[in-house]
Amino acid sequence: MRGRFPLDPSARPLSAGRMLAYTIQRVFQSAIVLLVVGLVAFSMFRFVGDPIDNMLGQERTMEDVERLRAQLGLDQPFVVQYYKFLEGAVQGNFGVSFRQGRPVSEILLERAPATLELAAVSALLAISLGIALGVFTAIRRNGFGANVIMSASLIGVSLPTFLIGILLIYLFSVKLGWLPSFGRGDTVDIGSWTTGFLTSSGLRALILPSITLGLYQMTLIMRLVRSEMLEVLRQDYIRFARARGLRERAVNFRHALKNTLVPVITVTGLQLGSIIAFAIITETVFQWPGVGLLFINAIQFVDIPVMAAYLMLISVMFVGINLIVDMLYFAIDPRLRVDRTGGH
Amino acid sequence: MVDTPLPQKDPSRLSLALQSDFVYQFKRSPVAVVSFVVALILVLGAVFAPLIAPFNPFDPASLNLMNGFSRPMTPNAFTGDSFWLGTDDQGRDVFSTILYGMRISLFVGAAAVLFAMVLGITLGLLAGYIGGWTETIIMRIADVQLTFPSILVAMLIFGIAKGVTPVEYRDQMAIWVLIIAIGLSDWVQFARVVRGATLVEKNKEYVAAAKLIGRTSPAIMLRHILPNVLSPVLVIATISLALAIIAEATLSFLGVGAPPTKPSLGTLIRIGQDFLFSGEWWILFFPAMTLLALALSVNLLGDWLRDALNPRLR
β-strand A193-195 against B74-75: which pairing, if any? Predict the structure, then answer.
């Protein structure tokens, strides 16, 4: 894995004090990353295209320009402007979309449910199928079915996501006509949240996009579970469990699977962020009205406020997930906690 | 010493190379040979596209809308030449557009990897050799960038660059912006590997010797350390090439890459997707297959190279 917290078993277990220090250090690092991303987003606002140009039309006087400049605070020092930008961003104020003329936060809130529902279903699919297939291929290591699945997963990894989507559309929408090829189907409004979970057309519309989005993560999780499982099945305590006469099922699931879950949970956590990012591709293929499609359209039409807001939003998500995953190590793996290991 | 002609000719560099262990390993691996041949055919097709392609898809004079949507193997309505892989909506020969599209895909991919490689090697050498603050700053940036998927980074850079370039130059600049965007999203791998190898190499005796005879730091880094850290770089470059080709195709497919006037394989797939529903499958199918063959063969070559250059795996 990357340069994250060392999971080296020989490392000294962390005491509560060191744990606290480590947490503070990680939170501090995350804050710096977010400040830097904020600076990038702010610079986009400030220097890519002239905001005055974008807001005032062709017919304008110097007075108009000066007034708007003062109104937007563009005459103030860079640091003050940056601070004001961050202040707005924290309160969810990202300015007005150049293209749609509406507040960016409003557009984002409208689009978020579509992406979150798609990502949630994909993640669920990837995790459940990934773990199931991983366990299967590990237990039946040399079986025919396991070999077929492993070879298929290799092809799945080399196929670009958008081709998988097109392939599924061709097969299930064009040829067989079973499932819709674009959009969310009928949605139901619950407060400000629009959901596709409650109608049959909404659920049917979810199938192809979520498979497309989840397939790559599924193969990753499957291969990880398989290799971890093979590792664990070689351990002594599994042999003892068998010697005790435990049933094969109990050995595989109660003992082996449980111990493979630490790396699986951390990698899955990190993959969650990628699912949101790769949703951009899936949403474009299926014309899914989510945040990713919004972002792609923003790039095509150089809609800077939307781009900056998306960047900030996704950074908060990525940095947050990374932080949580790092902290989760302690919650999941008792070997890292001194108060539990000391007693044995 | 008198120069006497040798009774036998010196073995040439080529024959030495052909007898090397590397070539022996290569010949013994069917996967490597097949993917090398496939990649070679595709690359040659792209390089010699103007000579091979039966039509010039970018010459409006040779296009005729009457030929639009020809199925594969049907003849041209005017000249009787056959369109091997059919034509698209504008009557462009799909086989020819693929050859020209592959040129753009390969060029962008190769140039982006080259850019990432130069940047990554430079920063990696500096970080590993100098250490201290330089190392901390470079590697922290690398860590942060690694948190984000590279395709997202490339999209963002593309978007910003698009905003900065004036509207009338955007189509011309798109290819170069694409190269920079993909290159900048991909340098981290190179920097990390080169830094790691440099940390090992810089404590070896030959570096100490070079320092003793008074060679400067840049000379030591470039002439002495660099050649010794190149073999992992080669492996990463090959795998990166496959990834860069896919990244380019993805961006172009999403409409934030190569413009329709200079279509790459990804742009062709984007165009073809519109006609899938009406049954004109060949407009999408053949570019997609070409992309797959290209990415897969380069990927498999990279995998083989990694094993072949790693003596521990034999």
Answer: unpaired
Q: Mean pLDDT, consecutive 10-residue segments, chain A of 344 residues?
A: 42 62 83 85 73 62 74 72 79 76 83 88 90 85 80 76 86 82 76 75 84 87 85 80 77 76 77 83 88 87 83 86 78 58 39
Fold classification of A114-300 (topology level) = MetI-like fold (1.10.3720)
Contact list in A for residue B143 (CB cut-off 8 A) is 2-3
Helix (H) or strand (E) holding B74: strand B74-75
> CA–CA distance from B256 to each of A292, B159, B160, B251, B267 (Å)?
13, 8, 11, 5, 10
As given in the structure block, the two tokens for residue A162 are: 């958008």
ipTM: 0.75
Q: Which residues contact residue B177 at a Cβ distance below 8 angstroms, ignoring those fewer than 6 apart?
A: B157, B158, B161, B162, B165
For position A56, what pLDDT does the model report?
62
Tell me which DSSP letter residue A103 carries.
B
Q: Give the three-state DSSP class for B83.
A: strand
- The answer to whether the Cβ–Cβ distance between B284 and A166 falls below 8 Å is yes
Question: Measured in whole angstroms, how far is the alpha carbon of residue A239 from the centre of its chain?
Answer: 38
Nearest in space to B158 (alpha carbons), one of B258, B30, B11? B258
Residue with structure tokens 């040659």? B44
Amino acid found at A263? P
Best of B136, B152, B278 to substitute, by most chain A Cβ atoms within 10 angstroms, is B152
Predicted TM-score of the model (pTM): 0.80
The answer to whether A291 touches A168, Cβ cutoff 8 Å, is: no
Percent pLDDT > 70 in chain B is 84
Q: How far apart are CA B101 and CA A7, in angstroms?
A: 46
In chain B, which residue ranges form alpha helices assigned H by DSSP? 13-18, 21-28, 30-47, 49-52, 94-130, 132-147, 150-164, 170-184, 187-201, 205-212, 217-219, 226-253, 265-276, 282-308
**Residue A27 belongs to what H/E stretch?**
helix A16-47
Burial state string for A198-213 with b = 16 or more CB within 10 A and e = fewer than 16: eeeebeebbbbbbbbb
- Report the pLDDT value the prediction gives residue B111, as an integer from 0 to 100: 94
Query: What sign does the dihedral B132-B135-B138-B142 (CA atoms) show?
Result: negative
* Cβ–Cβ below 8 Å for A163 and B276: no
Query: B48-60 pLDDT, tens per residue?
Result: 877 777 777 776 6
User: Distance between CA atoms of B249 and B285, rounded to whole angstroms?
Assistant: 14
Phi, psi of B93 (to 5 degrees): -65, 120
DSSP string, A247-261: -HHIIIIIIIIHHHH
% pLDDT > 90, chain B? 10
Name the residue ranges covered by the structural domains of chain A.
14-99+303-344, 114-300
Phi, psi for residue B75 in degrees, rounded to 5: -80, 155
For residue B294, the Cα-to-chain-centroid distance in whole angstroms is 10
- Beta-carbon contacts of B50 under 8 Å, excluding residues fewer than 6 positions away, are B56
- Chain-centre distance for alpha carbon B6: 44
Give me the amino acid identity at B130: I
Q: Is A31 on the interface with B (CB under 8 A)?
A: no
Average pLDDT over residues B124-138: 88
Q: Give the phi and the psi of residue A195 in degrees, each rounded to 5.
A: -120, 145
The answer to whether residue A23 neighbours chain B at the CB level (below 8 Å) is no
Q: Cα(A135)–Cα(A146) distance, rounded to whole angstroms?
A: 10
Which structure tokens are listed for A329? 């190590």
